[in-house]
Amino acid sequence: MSQRSEAFEPDTTPDSPELGLLGWLRWIWRQLTSMRTALILLLMLAAAAIPGSLYPQRSADPNGVTTYFQGNPELAKILDWFQLFDVYSSVWFSAIYILLFVSLIGCVVPRTRVHYRAMRSQPGEVPARLTRFPGYKKTITDASAKAILDTAEAALAEQGYRLVRRKESISAERGYLRETGNLVFHFALIGVLIAAGIGGGFSYNGQRVLVEGEVFVNNLASYDSFAPGVFFDEKQLKPFAVALDKFEVSFDLKNRTNIGTPLDFRAYVSTKISGDAKGSSSVIRVNEPLELPGANVYLTGNGYAPVVTFTDADGQISFSGPVVFLPQDANYTSLGVVKLPDSKPKQFGVLAFFYPTKQELKTGAFTSIYPDPVDPLLSMNLYVGDLGLNDGSPKNVFSLNTHGLDQVAGGKSGTKAVKMVIGQTVKLPSGLGSVTFNGLKRFASLDIAYNPAEIWILLFALLAIGGLGVSLSVSRRRVWVRKFEGGFEVAALAHNDDPRISAIVAELVATIAPKKGRKK
Amino acid sequence: MAIYTLSFLVFVWHLSSVASEGKSSPSRSSNLQKIGFGLLVLALFVHGIGVVSRGIAASRVPWANMYEFSISGSFILVAIFVFAWRVRDIRIIATFVTGFALLVLGTATNIFYVQVKTLMPALQSYWLVIHVTVAVLATAFFNIAAALSVAYLLKTSAYVEKSQSKVVGFARRVLAAFPDQQRLERLQVRFNSIGLVLWSFTLIAGAIWAQRAWHRYWGWDTKEVWTFIIWTLYAGYFHATSTRGWTGKRAAWLSLVGFTAIIFNFTIVNLFFKGLHVYSGL
């Protein structure tokens, strides 16, 4: 007996075919392009985007990244290795969205083929057993086939079904637009990605600080900083000039809760495009950039540029002109640096503070209490020594490295900081000469940016929304009506588990055989 | 706010009476529901006057800081809900919608309140009306869908079904008055659909405005990042509704995750994260 049961013991090892390399590739591809994978990749993408909001990103906040390195150098190095300061161009983030797009294309292209064929063909034969379908109703009636099918055809056609009427049955289908919208949406996303990629390559973005009276000419040398895209070519910079005539700020003087808050920034500029006979003037404001050929000029910041003249001990002018001071707070307390390497007898550097509306604090230090120059004061700390400009390496114009320099005015030097109001000339200590505060100018920081693909990205994005709206609102259904001896049956199938399907069938039945039919 | 509280209380009363009486005695409960609805409409009207007068006081649209955004947002939420009243099955979540609106208003008036301030230059653009309005509308739809998701999850929860505790038993009877699972799921999908289309528009309008004001249409600023995260989460939700094994409960959870991200976007990102969007002080 035991021998027989052994012989009958079923072999439970699975009997699937062995996959060769091609088989494995096909299997991987099938998994990658499945809805489940797309869903998981989408959730991963959302999660992967989170770190970019927790850590400063080089693209949006380079200052923040530098500060992070200064504050936590060890941790910063580790974070940097994981590319957490460049999340959106990082290897892992890119891998996720590239996989997602591959999955998208791999799914959408075959579906387009299927949809195209479906759109061109008529609804198929009525399935043999309609009882299986979620919406099903059988009705006993004496009406003739013609009467039943005529009514059904009319009702369905009115609801926009595409139908085929055969001898004793109707096959109807509607809602092709849903799939069309769906495909349009997904293809439009690909369009957005491609346009963004190409546009980003040909785009550029540069900054320039322009003092009142200065002119900016559009070439690489004129920019303070410049960031081109990968395919950028210098010939893309169209020749034009922008001069800042005047910069104005309007402040809120009426609302007591925020007196002194700026209401409007206006940069009055004159522009001349090469080849035009005359120039033109315009105003650049925060939400209104200046549009020029091949570039848009944006107003992103502003501040003060006091005009000073330094005369050295020999009576020679060692420096004269406006100096850009960087605002430090909402009341425009500003910090500026002047380096005098050619001053005789000694080189010196100046760390200066400008207060548009000065107020002396109890500590003896000053601060500004209002952003407009109602009562301006310029205060300078002086440092004598080798400024380090001789070795030819580039130095930050806005910072003074006081390491190795002797402070001769201000701070703990023993001598008070040099203070002046507009129009005043003051003699400098230590025989350094004298300085005059000639006047006060303002400056505007301008961003010049250009991205040729912007309009395409917008168009694709709008197309995507259109496709999305259509695909989420159109319902896709199939309905079959079949006459049999003594009655007829109706069945319907929806694209998703649509609970309304039974109601739809009931409605149709009621239309075909109103009160006369007896429901089984 | 007082009227909202009254409306909320009436709705709670209605819900509990429905639970205890069961579906078989609709008349008393439905009267309660009608009273609740009437109070809600009145409360909405008063709320609307409040929002409009804030706008007049500031001579601009009333959504330039957290306080204003909260009062406008909750107003739109209740307004959309009132319009959706026609969808009978929606009515049962009235308790939660009024409760949530109360919570938002309470937080707004007590924590977020600031005096009227003039609009800073960066916000002086007609895009403020477009971008923020659409964002608020989208949030309202996502909000209602999230409430439906909670109802769905409670209704399909094995714990709720089997638990012996009295509290859960009461909850079970309350839930019996809710529409059935399929209907809840379908409504979720409907409201989330509208929400996603509106949210996509929010994202695009924001990008257009960013291009005008900040010289680039997308820069991975913290709020832009979280708008993208929310969009991707809801995109995942819609994929889930078409994926075997992910419909039903898992999709409902995804809907809630998406809504959590919206709340996070509005509160934590505005208050604690650095970025270009954080400038109104509050």
Summed up, what is this model?
Chain A has 520 residues and is α+β, with helices and mostly antiparallel strands. Chain A contains eleven helices and 25 strands. Chain A has helices at 2-8, 21-32, 35-49, 51-54, 62-71, 73-81, 91-120, 145-158, 176-202, 454-473, 501-512; strands at 135-140, 162-165, 169-174, 204-211, 215-217, 225-228, 240-251, 262-273, 280-284, 290-292, 295-311, 317-322, 326-327, 334-340, 348-355, 358-360, 366-368, 377-384, 406-409, 418-420, 425-428, 433-450, 477-484, 487-494, 518-519.
Show the helix and strand layout.
The complex is a heterodimer of chains A (520) and B (282).
Chain A: H1 2-8, H2 21-32, H3 35-49, H4 51-54, H5 62-71, H6 73-81, H7 91-120, E1 135-140, H8 145-158, E2 162-165, E3 169-174, H9 176-202, E4 204-211, E5 215-217, E6 225-228, E7 240-251, E8 262-273, E9 280-284, E10 290-292, E11 295-311, E12 317-322, E13 326-327, E14 334-340, E15 348-355, E16 358-360, E17 366-368, E18 377-384, E19 406-409, E20 418-420, E21 425-428, E22 433-450, H10 454-473, E23 477-484, E24 487-494, H11 501-512, E25 518-519
Antiparallel strand pairs in A: 1-24, 1-25, 2-3, 3-23, 4-6, 4-22, 5-7, 7-8, 8-9, 10-11, 11-12, 11-22, 13-14, 14-15, 15-18, 16-17, 18-19, 18-20, 21-22, 23-24
Chain B: H1 2-21, H2 26-58, H3 66-83, H4 94-112, H5 127-155, H6 158-162, H7 166-176, H8 181-214, H9 222-241, H10 249-272
